[in-house]
Design goal:
The chain is an alpha+beta fold. It is elongated and about 105 Å long. About 25% of the residues lie in helices and about 30% in strands.
Length: about 200
Amino acid sequence: MGKIKGKLFVVEGRRLIPLAFLLILLVTLSIYDNFRVDTTARVVEEVKVENEIQFSTTDKGQKKVSPTLRVAAQQEQWALFAKEFKLELPEYPFNPHGEIGLFVYNGKIRHIEILPQADKQVQVRIAVDVKDDFYHLATIEKKDFWQEDKDYLWVLTDHKGKIIEEVILEEKKSEDTEEKDEEDEEDEDQESQQS
């Protein structure tokens, strides 16, 4: 008990117990931290390179990647796109008569949806998540969506629906049409030589 300017000041011991406990914890934690101090300094040695040329950095940073879509309807396209992206394809027998192959580079396919447009056009939307140095190879069965005499517009979008790329799938001409085109070109060449 103590007297402070005419007033009585009382200190109860049971109210000081939690404060004393916290003070003891603080002191023990400080002592424990001092035991764990790493006193070894790491020395980084500078490596000298012979015939070194000085350079100055003009610019640096990260390049924003954009996913790329390729649609394969023929075996040749399947192999060409794999070669373009330098991919070793798995031992998967691609069936161009019953499947469409999708190559997405710098992205992962989230979902594919079909949106009928005009009378002769069908839009196939492929939503992707952008991933740098990543590829996703997928096949879809023609029987699930394919209709003869329709033009297909393949649209690559991000997860928000922003259009990244559009690809129109070109059907390969039949052999008869190709032969007729070649004959027409030969006739034109002969006519130009005669003139």
